[in-house]
Automatic annotation (TrEMBL):
UniProt xrefs under InterPro entries: 4pyrrol_syn_uPrphyn_synt_sf (IPR036108), 4pyrrol_synth_uPrphyn_synth (IPR003754), UROS/Hem4 (IPR039793)
EC numbers for this chain: 4.2.1.75
Molecular function GO labels: uroporphyrinogen-III synthase activity
Catalytic activity: hydroxymethylbilane = uroporphyrinogen III + H2O
Source organism (scientific name): Neomicrococcus aestuarii
Name of the protein in question: Uroporphyrinogen-III synthase
Length: 283
């Protein structure tokens, strides 16, 4: 089975490995990319505050957020700022296993994450039952510019003071190289993260769209709501036999709202869970 991963090669390693290990053929096509905003003042200011221990907790909702903050920390340090990429005090919460692995590979021990639902809703449910330790109120929430505001709204409804900052922007691929997020993560170097070093099939968007329409792509992994939107914009009508798997409930809901038929929604936001959905449908 030819399974499409709509990510650039440097962010698709875990998916390519899982697809190959399952006996299938990975096909890469980057539809979106990630870049810093033109003005990084807000993210730089909040990052300095976090590393200076001015928050009671920080919540990370994606691996890209980890990469973005690491890259800005390195840039700030190189410019002479007193900034070190080291875990500050305060509680550290991860949305799920992939982000947790990325943080801990960088030396940032994660205190907890939601279970069983690894999502913004899961974080809110967890904190409604077990608040930030020691009565902490100040939460650092770096995220994408297209992030669903429900997490920020929900945290404020629970009584927290939330500093929500756009750590990066989701843009059409390829991003401007002067603003692109490129910081390597140690989790990627260990084989669990992003970098693809083999001869995986990589298609340009228009070629990929034709492959999908012709039925030569048998399954597509939708790894975010923004990717689902770009996929529909590019491909249009999807053959009914093409199986679409969403990485989580929010992506599944977005895909359905766009008129796509979702074959499965991963139980956890990772490559193995997405492939498990395809194997379940095959059995």
């Amino acid at each position: 089975m030819r399974i499409a991963v709509l990510r650039s090669a440097d962010r698709a390693g875990a998916f390519v490995t899982e697809i190959r290990n399952s006996g299938h053929i990975p096909v890469l096509c980057a539809l979106i990319d990630f870049a810093f905003p033109e003005n990084t003042t807000a993210i730089d200011r909040s990052l300095k505050r976090w590393l200076a221990r001015e928050y009671d907790a920080a919540i990370f909702t994606s691996i890209t957020t980890v990469r973005a903050l690491k890259q800005r920390a390195i840039a700030l340090s190189a410019s002479g700022a007193s900034v070190e990429w080291e875990r500050p005090a305060g509680e550290l919460i991860s949305v799920g296993d992939p982000t947790k692995r990325a943080l801990e590979a960088e030396g940032f021990e994660v205190d907890r994450m939601p279970s069983p639902e690894q999502s913004a809703a899961g974080i809110l449910e967890m904190l409604s039952k077990e608040p930030i330790r020691n009565g902490g109120q100040r939460i650092y929430l770096p995220h994408a510019n297209l992030a669903d505001p429900k997490l920020e709204i929900g945290l404020k409804a629970l009584g927290y003071e939330v500093d929500a900052v756009d750590a990066y922007h989701t843009v059409d691929a390829p991003a401007d190289p002067t603003h692109r997020i490129t910081a390597p993560l140690k989790v990627a170097m260990s084989g669990a993260g992003g970098v693809v070093l083999d001869d995986s099939i990589t298609l340009e968007p228009q070629d990929f769209a034709e492959e999908v329409r012709s039925g030569r792509i048998e399954a597509v992994l939708l790894t975010s709501p923004s990717i689902a939107r770009k996929f529909v914009e590019l491909v249009g009508t999807v053959p009914p036999e093409t199986r679409l798997v969403a990485i989580g409930k929010s992506t599944g809901a977005e895909a359905t709202a766009l008129g796509l038929t979702v074959a499965g929604i991963a139980e956890r936001p990772d490559a193995a869970s997405m492939l498990a959905q395809l194997e379940t449908k095959n059995s």
